[in-house]
Design goal:
Length: 124
């Protein structure tokens, strides 16, 4: 059974940092693109960042460029999201997702596996 388990969420003041982790089990995703998405209350789920299987290629939503960094450790089957200079508008449930292919994409429907999400709340 494939599982993606996010951790690292919490409450932080504006300007602060958090590091999210996503640990995969049940199969290896070392040859698959992985991504982070978020969903704020009352809004649709949106793309945040994605990374290729090798870690060489990554992409970011414009709203987080320069503040968030996605990375991965294939030996640990884990992907990370370092979030710096957090803003109240970053408040959302953050989801980890994995594709069945190696290509980095930004669309929700192209990710086959999803975690349960971790809440990130940024206070002003």
């Amino acid at each position: 059974q494939v599982q993606l388990v996010e951790s690292g969420g919490g409450l932080v003041q504006a300007g602060g940092s958090l590091r999210l982790s996503c640990a995969a089990s049940g199969r290896t995703f070392s040859r698959n693109a992985m991504g982070w998405f978020r969903q704020a209350s009352g809004k649709e789920r949106e793309f945040v960042a994605a990374i290729s299987w090798s870690g060489v290629t990554s992409g970011y939503a414009d709203s987080v460029k320069g503040r968030f960094t996605i990375s991965r450790n294939n030996a640990k089957n884990t992907v990370y999201l370092q979030m710096n200079i957090l803003k109240p508008e970053d408040t959302a449930v953050y989801y980890c997702a994995a594709r069945n292919t190696a290509v980095v994409v930004t669309t929700t429907r192209d990710y086959a596996y999803w975690g349960q999400g971790t809440q990130v709340t940024v206070s002003s």
